Every structure is written in C-alpha cells, then in structure tokens.
Amino acid sequence: MTHSRHIGVIAGAAALLLTATACSGLGRSTVGMLKFRSHDSPVELSYSNTLVKGCHPIALPKGAAHVENNTLVDIVLYRSLDCAEDEEDRPDGTYVATTLSNVTAPESRPWRSFRVIH
C-alpha cells in the first residue's frame, strides 16, 4: 500500500469514528408508538418518539395495566414513578420486547414508569 493511500485510510477511519461519536450524543427517540391503558378503562395513552434515555412516567392517574409496544425497541416497565426497583417488583422490572404487549395480573399493582432499552 502506498503512503498516500495509507494516510487516506487512516483519515477515513478517523472521520467515521468522529461521526459515530458525535451522533451518539444526539437526542435519539423511539420509532413507533407505545400505548398504555388502565385496568378496565377505555382511555388509552399513547407515546410516540419517546427519548431513549431516562425514566419516563406513565401519565395515567391509576397507572397502566395494559401496554402495547409497537416500536422498534424494547422497554422495561416499573411499578414505581421513578423506575426504581422495589421489593415487590421483579428486580429487573417487566421486560416488553418490540411489537409485543403485556397485561398485569388483576391483583398486582399497575405500572407507573418505563425505560427504553437501546
């Protein structure tokens, strides 16, 4: 490999690395819709383009008993308002994979917050 070609490859790799690093700090969001509903309620709350970082409270007064994940990412549901893992909740929350749904058991507490897995 010639010297100028070697420098070109290194410069190209460096540019690619800088681009990838710069994009990782952007406010990326989910693609698709998350739908939440309380137990026996016709009211449905939808989230679209949710940021992938942080804890997101579920803005239903009584929490959510039903969830539909129609996004391209997985989520974890928590029974606390701040995504904290408590003694009664499973240590890792409730995992809901992309394009799936879940329902709480009738006697269990509702989900109050979620995190996006990215």
Describe the structure.
This protein has 118 residues and is of the alpha+beta class. 19% of the residues lie in helices and 31% in strands. It is built from 1 helix and 8 strands. The chain starts with a helix and ends with a strand. 18% of the residues are buried.
What are the key terms here?
1 helix, four-stranded antiparallel beta sheet, 118 residues
Major beta-sheet overview: 4 strands, antiparallel
Mean pLDDT: 80
Count of DSSP strands: 8
Shape: elongated
Structural class: alpha+beta
Helix-strand topology string = HEEEEEEEE
* Spatial strand sequence of the major β-sheet: 2-1-4-7
> Which percent bin holds the helix content?
10-25%
N→C terminal distance? 39 Å
- Low-confidence runs: 16-25
What's the layout of helices and strands?
Layout lengths: L2 H22 L7 E6 L6 E5 L6 E3 L8 E6 L2 E5 L15 E3 L4 E3 L9 E5 L1
Antiparallel strand pairs: 1-2, 1-4, 3-8, 4-7, 5-6, 5-8
Short synopsis of the structure:
By secondary structure, the chain is of the alpha+beta class. It has one helix at 3-24, and strands at residues 32-37, 44-48, 55-57, 66-71, 74-78, 94-96, 101-103, 113-117.
